[in-house]
Design a protein that fits this description.
CATH superfamily of the largest domain: Spore Coat Polysaccharide Biosynthesis Protein SpsA, Chain A
Keywords: Coiled coil, Glycosyltransferase, Golgi apparatus, Manganese, Membrane, Metal-binding, Signal-anchor, Transferase, Transmembrane, Transmembrane helix
Order of helices and strands: HHHEHEHEHEEHEEEHHHEEHHEHEEEE
Helix content: 25-40%
Subcellular location: Golgi apparatus membrane
CATH topology of the largest domain: Spore Coat Polysaccharide Biosynthesis Protein SpsA, Chain A
Membrane topology: Single-pass type II membrane protein
GO molecular function, one term: manganese ion binding
Main location: Golgi
Length: 461
């Protein structure tokens, strides 16, 4: 069936709204003119109707009809405004920011020069999982063997686990195997003893980063933990988005991970769609040496990833992340004891579609472009209720904005959408300037705070 043009959709919406209003008005008149059941019974019995009863009954009916009519008019007006607003931004495709629906001014461009270093470390963090072979096999399968960038695999092992060490050494000179020398026990408070694994991990990361950036003198590294699958375009993804990071000081990491990347929450056809986010995603990520030199002075004793999410550490900078994840974790068993795995992580969709990065203009990810284009575009989208946004066949356009007011309302909406509802220092997962995009039931939904936005509130927990 041919798609209606936007103007026709708008006229149709107004016509439907008018017809619904007319039907409701006729029903109201019918009810006002029709005798009530009690009145009919009294006439049938030959008794005169009670005038007070009839008056009260009539008023109740009118008030109920008024409420129903008002609700009908509100919903009709929202749909009409939504279609009119959609026509004003140039169409109804839920393409997202990577494919604008109207011309956008570009205030900054990426330098044509390759700003990434020629040699890039691939730092694999390992401990006591012999299944690190699964990750290493995929790294060597998809890692480019030619081109302007050479990738060097460095496996840093903690724990002193012999079987895991044997697996790593079986790759011979294809990789460098380094071992964390400090295997001494860590003393922690009694209440933290069950979580001591997070202390060992943080100590290991610090040592491994020092080895890569200070001892081996690399200027860029991709961090892969020993329980990750990677997408076929994993390395192309980091090369091209890494160039954005290298040119934009407001970007401090590139992540392969979408925290809300379950298949029912993303457009699986849009592997070419990328975002800025204020939330550090991790799980396959790139950083540059200056970032590590900054981080190492305040590196935490435990919970290093949550440390990266603190406002004072992030300092207003963003990460780049994909619509469709370039990594997938198969590590249900670990120090987190499967936290979030069964409900969220195991459902993350891993990208398998090829992307022609060379043909893409990624300058939209630069902060000056992104803020003026993406955020302005989001706030020009029609604002609807979450009920309308989730309504299949509701008539709402393919891309909408749903406003939330406060943490409780956001959490309630997140649970209905099945996205992760937690905050770290007031930042929701995938949020950028408070806006969290989701693709649900064929519609792009942007959960957005009202304007003017005053920034993240660290008291949101």
């Amino acid at each position: 069936m041919a798609l209606l043009p936007v103007r026709s959709k708008t006229r149709l919406a107004f016509s439907v709204a008018f017809l619904l209003w007319l039907v409701a008005f006729i029903l109201l008149l019918n009810r006002r003119l029709a005798p009530s059941a009690a009145e009919s019974d009294s006439h049938a019995a030959g008794q005169p109707p009670n005038s007070r009863f009839l008056a009260a009954e009539f008023i109740n009916r009118v008030e109920q009809q008024q409420k129903e009519l008002q609700q009908l008019l509100v919903e009709s007006r929202q749909l009409a405004e939504a279609l009119r607003a959609q026509s004003s931004i140039g169409g109804n495709k839920a393409g997202g920011i990577g494919e604008p629906t109207s011309p956008r001014p570009v205030m900054a461009t990426l330098s044509p020069a390759d700003s990434l270093p020629a040699s890039i470390a691939v730092l694999v963090i390992a401990c006591n999982r012999p299944t690190v072979r699964r990750s290493l096999d995929q790294i060597f399968k998809y890692m480019p063997t030619s081109g302007p960038h050479q990738f060097h695999v460095i496996v840093s092992q903690d724990c002193g686990h012999a079987e895991t060490a044997s697996v790593i050494q079986s790759y011979g000179n294809k990789l460098v195997h380094i071992r964390q020398p400090d295997l001494s026990p860590i003393s922690v408070p009694a209440k933290e003893r069950a979580l001591v694994g997070y202390y060992y991990i943080s100590r290991h990361f610090r040592w491994a980063f020092d080895q890569v950036f200070l001892t081996m003198n690399y200027t860029a590294a991709i961090v892969v933990e020993d329980d990750l699958d990677i997408a076929p375009d994993f390395f192309d993804y980091f090369i091209h988005l890494g160039r954005v990071m290298a040119q934009d000081p407001t970007v401090w990491c590139v992540s392969a991970w979408n925290d809300n990347g379950k298949s029912n929450l993303i457009d699986t056809a849009r592997s070419d769609l990328f975002y800025r986010t204020d939330f550090f995603p991790g799980l396959g990520w790139m950083l540059l040496r200056p970032t590590w030199l900054e981080l190492r002075t305040g590196w935490p004793a435990a919970y290093w990833d949550d440390h990266m999410r603190k406002a004072g550490v992030r300092r207003g900078r963003a990460c780049l992340r994909p619509e469709v994840s370039r990594s997938y974790t198969f590590g249900r068993v670990g120090v987190s004891n499967g936290l979030y795995f069964d409900k969220y992580l195991r459902f993350i969709e891993l990208s398998k579609r090829p992307v022609n990065y060379a043909a893409m203009d990624l300058s939209y990810l630069l902060k000056s472009n992104y803020d003026s284009y993406y955020l302005d575009r989001v706030y020009k989208l029609p604002s609807v209720t979450l009920d309308i946004a989730l309504g299949v066949g509701s008539g709402a356009p393919a891309e909408v904005r749903v406003q939330y007011n406060g943490p409780k309302e956001f959490v309630a909406m997140a649970k209905r959408l099945d996205i992760m509802p937690d905050f770290k220092d007031g930042v929701a997962r995938c949020a950028y300037s408070g806006v969290v995009p989701v693709f649900k039931s064929g519609r792009r939904i942007h959960l957005a705070p009202g304007r003017p936005w005053k920034g993240y509130d660290v008291t949101w927990k």
